[in-house]
Structure formats: C-alpha cells, structure tokens
Amino acid sequence: MDNFTFHNPTRLHFGRGQIAQLGRELPPQARVLLVYGGGSIRRNGVYDQVRGALEGRTVVEFAGIEPNPEYETLLRAALLGRQERVDWVLAVGGGSVIDGGKFIAAAVTLDPAIDPWLIVGNRTPLKTALPLGCVLTLPATGSESNFAAVVNRRQTQDKLSFKNPLVFPRFSVLDPQVTVSLPPRQIGNGIVDAFVHTVEQYLTVPTEARVQDRLAEGILQTLIEVGPQTLADPAQHEARANMMWAANQALFGLVGLGQVQDWATHAIGHELTALYGLDHAQTLAAILPALLRYRYDDKRAKLIQYGRRVWQLSGGEDEIAQRAIAATTDFFGQIGVATNLGAYGIDADAAAQAVAAQLIRHGRLRLGEYGRLAPDDCAAIVRMAG
C-alpha cells in the first residue's frame, strides 16, 4: 500500500429535512450566488426549501447550468457574481451544477488579466476562491465532497477537469427525499457513475490496501442491491438513502487511498461526450466492459477478487474473472444503461479514430494504471465497445 495523505474539509448534512441547515451554514449577511440547472428544483419543492432557508440574505440567482456544464454558461454566471459582489456560491443540483459551482467560485475571484479557461486543466494557479456550499439533488458524481470538477467547451469539443483544494465545498446537504421525482434515466446514470468511480480506484492491481478494497467492495455491493430497488420503487426511502451515500463515498477520497488507480474509462468517456453529446454514464457503461476485456491480463488478479467478493462467483480463476466482466455488463443493462456504442447510433470505427485524435490533442498519451494505454490502445477499446 502506497504512502498517502487524506484531507476532506466538507461538512455533510445527510437525511430528511436537512436543507434547513442552510440557515446555519450561511452567514446572515452573506451575498449568495444561487446556481442551478433547469426547472426541476422548482417543481419538486427544493427551490422553495432553499429560498426559505436563505431568508434575510441577499440572493442572486443564475439558472441554466447544463448537464456537462458549458464553459460559456459558467463564465456568464461568474460575471454576474462579480457584478453583484457575491461572497458565497450555493450550487443546487447534481454533479454538473456542483462542478459548475466550483468553476464559478474560482472564476469570480480570478485576476481579470488571466484567461479563465486556464483554470481548467490546472494551467494557472488559484490563489483564492469564493466559499462554496451545495444541495445535492442527483446522487452520482460525489462532487459535493471533493475538490475536482469537469467543464465542457462545446465550441472546441473539450471536456476537461481541474482540481484544487480551494474549491472543496465548505458544506453539502444530502436529502434522499429530494431525489424521488428523478426520472429512471437519471437514476440509472447515477448508479453507473458511482459504480465506475469505485471500479477505477479498485479494479486495478493488488496493493495490499485491504481496508480500501473492502470499502470499495461494500460500495459496489450496495449499488448492486439498491440500484434495482430504487428504480422499481421510487418511494423506497432506505434504498435511495443508501444509493445517495454510496455515490458520495465512491469519490469521497477514502477508496483510492494507497491504491494504484486507473481512470482510463473516464478519460475515453469524456472524449465521447465532447464528440457525441452522450450522457457521461452512458460512455462509462459502454467503455468499462470493453476496457476490462482489453486489459484482461493486467487486471486478472483483481478481476478474480472482484468476482469472488462482489459477485459471489466460484469456479476456476479465469472463469470467475470472465464471468465478473459479464456480470458487470449485465448489471448496467439491468438498470437501463446500454453497454455498446451502437445502441446510441455511434459508429465505433469512426469514434475510435476521433477519440484517439482528441487524446493526442489533449496530451493524454499514457492512460491507465502505470500509463500503459496509448491512444491506439484507447481506439481499440472504443472499437470493442461498438
């Protein structure tokens, strides 16, 4: 197990009615930039709860942050925040809104002489950022308690990330009840996203990180148990609560400590989203099984462990490893997320060439644990995902 340092400063308020905690977390004199996506938070009552908890504070609203938040949209929000002299950002929504909130919190205080696009990819140092709070409405990314964000720029077909401790949310509210009205597509996407986040940190090579392995396996088993329940019975509160917590813990920071990590599925998936507009989780569900087959020899030992512990498989070692890949593929299909690019009308050969070109353009030439995946390897994985 490798050396590591762990630090997570986000306070989590979990459970029913916790939106009321906003009144304690945000100072009475705060000038708050409230950012959110579409109209769903008005229809499900979240907006009214948030505004009620913020009573007495100056609140400036910015709506319209997209799934895969667009750089140009976030720039407009940052400009509004600067003009209104806000001193807090409150992001209400799923991972895309929260990722956008992180960029906005950094961009509002950025030196006007610096191109804000340089925040993405960590190409300029951040000296300050506004404090950020979150109300999570879609469990998936874990963005509500980590310091990473992904920003899309449709104009240049870029989907890139940045990380900085300054954009750690100061607090996040997680009320499972507010997810009841989510459509099945978003729930299925969230389950896949959390699942693959966990796998990227776990399904690599043995490192004797035994506690972290079992944390990962517990998260995966929980998602396998409660994912179908959540889809079948939207009112099943305990299933939703466990799904929300599993998604948070998948990328909270503990699972990957001391582990050799992968993240190639995400890197390829980001390029597919930028090129074709697929949901993030749709790309992950298509790429992960193909990547596991392509890198079978490298991942064989962990695949055997995964098959035995998570899927309770028995038999010969190679049989277990191969059946574990099949079980993963079947699970994604069971929760309604297709596992091949053809289901989304994408030609795999053309996509393979386009993804390889994008990876080269972005300088992502050695992906995966130990950097063994070149762009040509990634192209082969995309073809296998066809």
TrEMBL record:
Residues 191-383 form the Fe-containing alcohol dehydrogenase-like C-terminal domain. Pfam families: ADH_Fe_C, Fe-ADH. Gene3D superfamilies: 3.40.50.1970, Dehydroquinate synthase-like - alpha domain. Its EC number is 1.1.1.1. It is an enzyme of class 1 (oxidoreductase). Keywords: Oxidoreductase. This is Iron-containing alcohol dehydrogenase. It comes from Chitiniphilus purpureus.
